[in-house]
Amino acid sequence: MRLILWTSAAALGIAAALWAVTVPAPLADAAALPRGDAEAGARVFAAAGCASCHVAPDTEEDGPPVLSGGEAFETAFGTFYAPNISPDAAAGIGDWTDAQIVNAVMHGVSPAGAHYFPSLPYTAYVKARPDDMADMVAYLRTLPASDVPSQPHDLAFPFNQRWLMGFWKPLFLRDYWVVPDSVADDDTLRRGRYLVEALGHCGECHTPRNALGGLRVDAWLTGAENPSGEGRIPGITPAQLDWSAGDIRAYLSSGLTPDYDSAGGSMVAVIDKLAQLPEDDIDAIVAYLKALPEAGQP
């Protein structure tokens, strides 16, 4: 009997410890968000590239984007599908509060208190300013609603266990800048850092990952294997990309390379969204990229 009691107590203690470690931790200040501005939010939405993933595949954009989801992302862990984030109350996020949306985007926590998988790049968005997120939410609420249901992810065990993100997040969900203030030492560079590291989440594709799927910030923006297994995503530090500032600016604005080739793959959608940003933002991104150390993290 004593053995049974001790075993039960130990099991309960382990279960309580696991719950404490893996329980999602929402943003403490999300409930105190300022009132968002939809016009400013359109710029944040473009910089964050939301439509690139959440507009249905093969949709011809004509007018405001319909964020019905459905885009598939193949990875070593399985296939993730972008969900419906339109203002539809049933299929989308129309009945979520502003705080719930910001918690999802910045910390990967659902309204029900479950972890989201990092296919939603909250490891980048955690660095975003809450006022920008509030503006983006205000813009999202102006977009057309869609009643298309979100597709479930196709993940094998154990990668389909959301509670495991409770162990993953402390390792890889960090709100520090990869490039510190000593390198990003003026307003232009800090704006570029904000656009590249936070809103633009460029590291999600251009930085290699470890076996757990976390970004290797010691090799920041030095290139990575394509998650789909097709080809390689290029590095964009000065060591891998010897283009001039003007060349990079032209590419980000038009999609044309210095040798008159054009952007392909997912960069087509990225450049389409960057073209909606003011020239000062493009200049800031270029300045940040040119200021990077030649081999990853400073």
Describe the structure.
It is built from 12 helices and 5 strands. With 298 residues, the protein is mainly α. The protein folds into 2 domains: 25-172; 187-291, Cytochrome Bc1 Complex, Chain D, domain 2, CATH 1.10.760. Strand 4 and strand 5 (232-233) form a beta hairpin. Helix 2 (38-48) crosses helix 6 (130-140) and helix 10 crosses helix 12. The longest helix is centred in the N-terminal third of the chain and has 21 residues, at 2-22. It is globular, with a radius of gyration of 20 Å. The N and C termini lie far apart (59 Å). 34% of the residues are buried. The model is unreliable at 8-20 (pLDDT under 50). Residues 1-20 form the signal peptide. GO terms for molecular function: electron transfer activity; heme binding; metal ion binding. Pfam families: Cytochrom_C.
Largest sheet: 3 strands, antiparallel
User: Which structural class is indicated by helix and strand composition?
Assistant: mainly alpha
Give the overall pLDDT as a whole number: 87
- Helix count, DSSP H or I runs of 4 or more residues: 12
Strand content: under 5%
Unreliable parts? 8-20
Q: What number of structural domains do the residues give?
A: 2
Give the total of beta strands.
Answer: 5
- What is the first-to-last residue Cα distance? 59 Å
Compute the gyration radius: what is it?
20 Å
User: Topology as H/E string?
Assistant: HHHEEHHHEHHHEEHHH
